[in-house]
Write a structure and sequence with these properties.
This protein has two domains: 8-211 and 328-409, Zn peptidases (Aminopeptidase), CATH 3.40.630.10; 213-325, Alpha-Beta Plaits, CATH 3.30.70. The chain is globular and about 80 Å long. It has helices spanning 8-19, 36-52, 96-111, 138-143, 149-153, 163-169, 196-200, 238-256, 293-314, 333-346, 360-364, 391-409; strands spanning 55-58, 64-68, 78-82, 120-124, 185-191, 204-210, 212-221, 262-271, 281-290, 317-326, 350-355, 370-375. By secondary structure, it is of the alpha/beta class. The termini are close together. Helix 1 packs antiparallel against helix 3 (96-111), helix 8 (238-256) runs antiparallel to helix 9 and helix 10 crosses helix 12 (391-409). Helix content is 36%, strand content 21%. The strands form two sheets. Strands 1-2-4-3-5-12-6-11 form an eight-stranded mixed sheet.
C-alpha cells in the first residue's frame, strides 16, 4: 500500500480556528463542557462536517459523530476520537489535536479520492475533561454501557446545574441512541501530556496501555461553631479534616514516587467557608495512580488509613461518598502492532509508552479494539495555558494515524 500524507496547512488552519474559541489572555483556552464556548467549538466541527459533505449525528449525551461513508454500509465503522472541551486554564491541543487530526484524515481520503469499505467516523466526546461534571470521560463511559444515561443526566456542577439541562441549553442533547452498535476499532491521537517524547526527540509514542487509576470524592462532616468561644478540644472543623487528609494524600504520593506512583488532592469544597465560623461540611476530590495494579491496591489501603487518622485528628466523620477508576489496561495487540508497523513503513521513529492520564480510549477498549498514538508537547506541559506543540514534529504521528486507519478501513 502506498503511503499517504495529510495536508499540514489544512491541519494547522483547523487548529488555528479552534484556538480562537474560548481563548485566554495567556494563550490558552477555557472551554468548559456544555458552556457557550463549548457550543461554539461544536458548531465549528459541525460546520466542517457540513462543508465536507459528511453525515453528523449527535447522541443523547451530546457525543458528536462525523461519518464518511464506506462502500459496505453493513460493515462496522472505524472510529477516530477525542474531545473539544478543555480545563479551566487549559491548552490549545489537549484532545483538540485528536479531533482535528481525525477530520484531516477524512479530508485526505477525499482529496486522494480513496473509497474505504468501512465507514470512518470522527467522534467528539462530551465532558472528557471532567472539569465541570465529574467524573472525567463521562460520556464515553455512557457509550461503553458502564453508566446509564439517567445517571449521567443527573450529574451536577459546582453551581448545582444538571448535566441534562446544560446539554439542552446549548442545543446538543441529541436523539440518537448512546452506544449499542458494532464498532470495528477505535483510534485516538493525543499529545503525550508528559515530557518523554519531547526530551527524547521522538515524534511518536505507541501507547500500549494505561496506568491504573482510582478517584474518590470524600465527604467530611463536622459541626458549625463560633471561632472565638469554642475550645480547641470541642472543635469539629470539616475544613481542618479535609486539610489533614489532603496533606496525607500528598505524602502517600511521595512514598510511591520512586516507583512512578502519584497521588493528588485536587479539589476542596467547603461550607459555609466563612470567617467567624467553623465549617461543618467539606468535600475533597483525590486520585491516585501507579503502573502496577497491585501497588494501586496498596495505595488504596494507605488512603483508607489516612482517612481514619485524619478523622481522628479533626474529630470529624470522613466517608467515601463516591469512587471511580479506569486504566490498568492493555490496548489491543493487533492495533498496537499496526501502529508500530505503520510507523516503521513510514520511517517515523517511535517508542512504546504507557499513558498516565485518562482518555476516552480506556472506555472504548471495553466495547471494541482500541489503541492510542502520542505526539510530543513542548516540555511535557499540559492542562496549562502554556501547552504547545511543534507542528513539524506532530505531522508524522498524524500520517501514521491516517495510514493505519486506512489499512483498517479497507
Amino acid at each position: 500500500m502506498n503511503h499517504r500524507a495529510i495536508d499540514p496547512a489544512s491541519l494547522q488552519a483547523m487548529l488555528d480556528a479552534s484556538s480562537r474559541i474560548g481563548a485566554t489572555a495567556n494563550g490558552g483556552l477555557r472551554r468548559l463542557t456544555l458552556t457557550p464556548e463549548d457550543k461554539a467549538a461544536r458548531d465549528l466541527l459541525a460546520g466542517w462536517a457540513r462543508d465536507g459533505g459528511y453525515a453528523l449525528t449527535v447522541d443523547q449525551l451530546g457525543n458528536m459523530f462525523v461519518r464518511r461513508d464506506g462502500t459496505d454500509a453493513a460493515a462496522p465503522p472505524v472510529l477516530i476520537g477525542s474531545h473539544l472541551d478543555t480545563q479551566a486554564k487549559g491548552g490549545r491541543f489537549d484532545g483538540i489535536l485528536g479531533v482535528v487530526s481525525g477530520m484531516e484524515v477524512l479530508r485526505t481520503l477525499d482529496r486522494l479520492d480513496i473509497r474505504t469499505r468501512r465507514a470512518v467516523e470522527v467522534v467528539n466526546w462530551t465532558n472528557e475533561e471532567g472539569a465541570r461534571f465529574q467524573p472525567s470521560m463521562l460520556c464515553s463511559l455512557g457509550f461503553s454501557g458502564q453508566q446509564s444515561i439517567g445517571w449521567i443526566y443527573d450529574r451536577r456542577d459546582k453551581e448545582g446545574v444538571r448535566f441534562e439541562d446544560a446539554l439542552a441549553a446549548i442545543g446538543y442533547r441529541g436523539t440518537h441512541p448512546v452506544g449499542g452498535r458494532a464498532i470495528d476499532s477505535y483510534f485516538e491521537l493525543h499529545i503525550e501530556q508528559g515530557p518523554t517524547l519531547d526530551a527524547m526527540g521522538v515524534p511518536l509514542g505507541v501507547v500500549t496501555g494505561g496506568y491504573e487509576m482510582r478517584g474518590m470524592r470524600l465527604s467530611v462532616r463536622g459541626e458549625t461553631s463560633h471561632v472565638g468561644p469554642t475550645p480547641m478540644n470541642r472543635r469539629r472543623n470539616a475544613l481542618v479534616g479535609a486539610a489533614h487528609l489532603a496533606v496525607a494524600i500528598d505524602e502517600i504520593g511521595w512514598r510511591y514516587a520512586p516507583e512512578d506512583g502519584k497521588t493528588t488532592a485536587a479539589r476542596i469544597d467547603v461550607a459555609p467557608n466563612l470567617p467567624g465560623i467553623l465549617s461543618d461540611e467539606a468535600e475533597l476530590y483525590v486520585d491516585f495512580r501507579h503502573p502496577s495494579r497491585v501497588r494501586v491496591a496498596d495505595m488504596e489501603r494507605d488512603v483508607a488509613a489516612a482517612i481514619a487518622e485524619s478523622a481522628r485528628r479533626s474529630r470529624t466523620d470522613i466517608t467515601i461518598a463516591e469512587q471511580w477508576g479506569f486504566g490498568g489496561l492493555e490496548f489491543d495487540p493487533a492495533l498496537v502492532a499496526l501502529i508500530r508497523d505503520t510507523a516503521r513503513r513510514l520511517g517515523v521513529p517511535s517508542i512504546d509508552i504507557r499513558s498516565q492520564a485518562g482518555h476516552d480510549a480506556y472506555h472504548m477498549a471495553k466495547v471494541c479494539p482500541a489503541v492510542m498514538i502520542f505526539t510530543p508537547c513542548r516540555g511535557g506541559i499540559s492542562h496549562n495555558e502554556k501547552e504547545d506543540i511543534d507542528i513539524e514534529r506532530t505531522i508524522p504521528g498524524v500520517n501514521v494515524l491516517l495510514n493505519a486507519v486506512l489499512e483498517r478501513a479497507m
